[in-house]
TrEMBL record:
Protein name, per record: DMT family transporter
Organism of this sequence: Natrialba swarupiae
Highest rank taxon of the organism: Archaea
Segments traversing the membrane: 6-28, 40-60, 72-90, 102-122, 128-149, 161-182, 188-213, 225-247, 253-275, 282-302
Membrane topology classification: Multi-pass membrane protein
Length: 304
C-alpha cells in the first residue's frame, strides 16, 4: 500500500482547496449571466449547510449543544454572518458586475485587512515581511483599479469608474475579520466541522431574514442553468473549506497558505480556458495584478 506523508497530503489538499475556491468564482460568473445574485447566495448557503450539517450529525453524538460554549457559538455565528453572508453577497454582486478575474485579486487582499485587524485588536507586531507583502497587495489592487476603470465608460469620472471596486473591497474587509472570530471559536474548544455548521446555518438564517426585510424573496427556478451553476458553486465552496481546514490539520502553514493564495491566478487562467470572452476579458494586466497580489498575500500569510 502506497504511503503518503502528511506534508504531501497537505499539499494535495491545499491545491484541491485553491481549485475549489477558484471554481466558485467561475460557477457564480456563469450563473449570474442570466440568474440573480440573491438566488446565488441562497443556493450556495443551502448547499453549505446540507454538506457540513449531515457529517456533523453522523460523526458527533447528541446533545449537540455540548459541542459549543457560549463564546464559541457566538464567535462562529459572527464569522458566518460576516464571511458567509455579507462577504458572499458583496463578492457575488462584484463577480456579476466586473467579472471573476477582477474580483478575485481584490478578495485576496483580505489578508491585508486581517493583518491590520490583528495588529489593532490582538496587539500583533507588523514585521518587515508583513509591510513588503502589504505594499505588493496595494500595487496589485492599483493595477486592478486601473483595469476596471479602463473597461468602463470613458466618460465616467475616476471616482465613478472605480466605484465597482468598493464591493470586493468591502467583502475583503469582512473576510479579513472572519479568522479572528473563527480562531476565537476554535480556542474555546469547538471543532472545525461543528463550527462550520454554525457558520453556514447562521449565515443562511441571516440571509433569509435579509430577503424578507428587503422584500426580495423570489421563486427559485429549479430547472434552469443558473440554478445548476449555483449548486456547483455551493459544492465547490464546501469542498474548498473542508480541504483548507483538513490541509492545516496535517501540514504546516508554510506549505498550505502559499498554495491556497494561488486562487486569483487559477481564476484568471481558468477564465481564459472555460469562460466565453463576452463574460470575462482577461488581459495581461489582470494576470500581472493577480500574480502580484498572490505574492503579497503569501508573504503576509506566512509572516502572520
Amino acid at each position: 500500500m502506497l504511503e503518503v506523508s502528511d506534508s504531501l497530503l497537505g499539499v494535495g489538499l491545499a491545491i484541491v482547496g485553491a481549485l475549489a475556491f477558484a471554481g466558485q468564482f467561475l460557477f457564480v460568473r456563469l450563473g449570474t449571466d442570466e440568474g440573480e445574485v440573491g438566488n446565488a447566495v441562497l443556493i450556495v448557503l443551502l448547499c453549505n449547510v446540507a454538506l457540513v450539517a449531515a457529517p456533523t450529525v453522523i460523526l458527533y453524538s447528541p446533545p449537540y449543544s455540548a459541542l459549543f460554549t457560549p463564546t464559541s457559538f457566538a464567535s462562529f455565528a459572527a464569522a458566518g454572518i460576516l464571511g458567509m453572508f455579507v462577504a458572499r453577497l458583496l463578492m457575488f454582486e462584484s463577480i456579476q458586475r466586473i467579472g471573476a478575474s477582477l474580483t478575485s485579486p481584490v478578495i485576496a487582499s483580505n489578508v491585508l485587512f486581517a493583518t491590520i485587524f490583528a495588529v489593532a485588536l490582538l496587539d500583533e507586531r507588523l514585521t518587515a515581511v508583513h509591510f513588503a507583502g502589504i505594499v505588493l497587495i496595494v500595487v496589485g489592487l492599483a493595477v486592478v483599479s486601473w483595469e476596471t476603470a479602463a473597461s468602463t465608460n470613458t466618460s465616467q469620472s475616476i471616482r465613478e469608474a472605480g466605484a465597482p471596486l468598493a464591493l470586493p473591497l468591502a467583502a475583503a474587509v469582512c473576510i479579513g475579520l472572519e479568522p479572528i472570530f473563527v480562531s476565537t471559536g476554535l480556542a474555546a474548544g469547538t471543532a472545525v466541522l461543528p463550527g462550520l455548521t454554525v457558520m453556514a446555518g447562521t449565515a443562511t438564517v441571516g440571509f433569509a431574514a435579509y430577503l424578507v426585510v428587503t422584500r426580495s424573496v423570489r421563486r427559485i427556478p429549479l430547472r434552469s442553468a443558473s440554478t445548476a451553476w449555483y449548486v456547483a458553486a455551493g459544492v465547490s465552496t464546501t469542498i474548498g473549506f473542508v480541504a483548507y481546514f483538513a490541509a492545516l490539520e496535517v501540514a504546516p502553514v508554510v506549505l498550505v497558505m502559499p498554495l491556497l493564495q494561488l486562487t486569483p491566478l487559477l481564476v484568471a487562467g481558468l477564465s481564459v480556458v472555460f469562460l466565453p470572452r463576452r463574460l470575462e476579458r482577461v488581459t495581461w494586466r489582470v494576470g500581472a495584478s493577480a500574480f502580484v497580489v498572490v505574492v503579497g498575500a503569501t508573504a503576509v500569510s506566512l509572516s502572520g
